[in-house]
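ingest -> fold -> write
write: protein_1
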Amino acid sequence: MRPQITESVTPYDFSAGLDLDGWQSRRNQAQGRHRLRVLEAARLITDVAGGRTDPFLMRQAFHPTQEYAVRALAESYPGLLNLQEAPVGGMSVTDFSALTLDVLDRVLYGYWTATPVISLPMVRKHTLRDFRSVSRYLIDGATTPPELVAPGGEPKAKFLINNAPIQYAPYKYESFTRVVWEAMINDDLGIFNDLAQRLVIGANRGIEMFLTGLYIDVSGPNALLYNSTFANIINIANGAASNNPPLSIQGLQDAFKILAGMRDVDGYPIILAGKMYLWYGPSLVATAQNLMHMLTAQLSVNGGTANVQGFPTQFIEINNWAVQNMTPIMNPFIPLVATTANAATSWGITLDPNAQNRPAMEFGHLAGFETPQVFSKVPNTMRAGGGVDASLGDFYTMSQELKVLSVYGGKVIDGHSTVASNGSGA
């Protein structure tokens, strides 16, 4: 058996005139390559026949499919294979791409676009000086109207109610990563260029998980913020038409009723003002957007009438006033915190904390750490007789290390400026 050897001779352009010396030189080169291939092919056949070479390499010489086999042929029988395209007997297009692996066309795609810290508008931000606990005091009382006093009588004394202070302390949250020197040297795609950005993404996700946990717990709306003490659960007991209604135009109207009926500890009305934030999870995004872009609504309640069976007898058509002065906040972290069935249906309204004397929640960050901070380990490797070589990193491990640090804390303050429903209808 004799391998088929093909020649590839560069066509000569006769329009430029005859160049016999150049033509003879190229002819000699082609003949030299031909003689080399014949010699190496004969060696390969002899070795296979004598049992010194695996017959598999003979098959690979005719039809290369495996990179390691081609490398073995190139090392043991140089000149046998021509890794250029040829009409017959050469490398095919698919073989060529297989042999070169992904060297010809490599692309590094960037990381996903990460969500920002979306719950910040709903909390009062405060700068903390150090790691000691901070106290927040809520003083009630002495706001009831004065009573009628008979001539010569004494007025009734009013007393302040000193509640237990609300306290919290900031904590530091850290993570770091290490890249070995060999990986840095081999990185020709810039894989590690966005390493600091990835650490910041993780830190911001930690902040958002913390903030979400202030108003969401495993069962839906956080019981520390939404309870009977604040009377801010959207249910019949607090003035709603139904218990825990789903997100709808009727549910929003029930939420407004409860906010409008808020009272302090003395039983007198509280005036709530400012921008409203409608928060909800991913499964309610279509419902929320429909409500935000609704032009009109037809109602048989709250102005319309219905018969005894509950069927409407009169409709009123209104403009979509319910979402005026309202900003929607779709929080994709809610299903990560609320792991029960109510995670998908929970929603609520929180008023602008900066417009309230008592915000619903407070978030404190250490001074200088308003956002996550990234640090790198100072390189400590020095060339003998030279300066510090930053690319060599640590003296012992020759790695480069990055760390992200964020310092924060927070607590529920007062729930009178927020209402919520788990959307279960029960």
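write: protein_2
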Amino acid sequence: MLFTIAVSAVFSALLPAQEAEYGVSMPVTATFGAMDTQRLQLANPAASAWSPNFRLMFYPTLRLGKHWFAYAAVQVRRLPFFYYDALLSERGVETDLVQGYVGYTLRSGGATMVFKAGQLTSAFGSFPLRYDDAQNPLMDQPLSYITEVPLRGDQLLCGTADLLNQYYGSVSATCGGAVGRGAGLTPVSLYGLPGAQAEVSVHRFDARAQLTTSSPAYPDGWHISRQYLQWTAGGGFTIQQGFRVGGSAFRGPYLDSSVAPWLPTGTTVRSFPATGMGLDGQWARGRLSATGELQRFRFDSPNFVVSPGITSGYLELKGRITPRLFVAGREGYLKTGSVLDTQSISAPHFGATLQAAEIGAGWWLEPRVLLKVSYERMAIAGVPGNKFNVLGLQLVASFRQLQWGWK
């Protein structure tokens, strides 16, 4: 790790920035941090509440002329790194391919079009592309992108009573499919899905359309044989400089083929899709900026008349105190909706409402070296205490000039 940082620093000093039609580059973002939270003691009360961590993001890019390019984003992190990692039992070092695709760019008049194919982050929402620690002014992520809700794709729920027996991060439905408790679905994954995408930008308007082989709520890798084609689309309009509004939606099967034998006669997993709809906005003026999202999800299930649904949203504010110092805050929530099963049993909600409030500050020690600190208060309805709160510290260094180009 230290060798990588040292090599990047050397290339940053020796290679001037250049625009070349052909070339290879390797931007790197290195983050060293620590967190202090009782979340680390949930699985083992004897464990320390303090944990150091690190994260490396590699962005290898290949330019092949004016149109063709290849891009990847590879993550190496020590668990727990993210605040939500502290809720899980996994420990050690983990490597993930966040993105990896081949692209083609075409410009005509005032329009720019980009086509991509490979491992792509979901086109739903506006947060998935902000996975770099230098781009995120805080340390956590909005709840809809990290929360394991009380639903699974490889198990069928019998009805409302069965659903009310599930918990965040621990699900064991009993009407078919996999056996035993396990992690629930995350409404929108921050990791890549196999698929293809087209983007267009014309003056103030932008749009994107994506076809993937699995749901953003239940992503499958290339090695999984279960493949169900589905769509995601989004777009936005820049009202004026610094002010943009947009929206996105996705729809497609989320159930695993293992539950097919227990589905009603004449139906398949395609008969019960997951649907997501969202609004997003970004605003910036002077030293202040804001971004936010409001999202609604529904997971159709065969034993329900009113299927499980989730509403989530957040508002993030950032203020620049000096050219090097900023403060930021994010307030978010996740709320489950009402359900009604085929036996006429209903419930006003099927899970506790979650609320997360994070405040933090950042100081640019150098143009590409950022020191961040944040504190998050997590409230779960009906659960007293502050054991889910987190205090975190990060030192983020970015190396952008590791490149070699030729005409």
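write: annotation protein_2
The CA atoms of residues 197 and 210 lie 4 Å apart.
Helices lie at 2-14, 160-163.
pipeline exit 0
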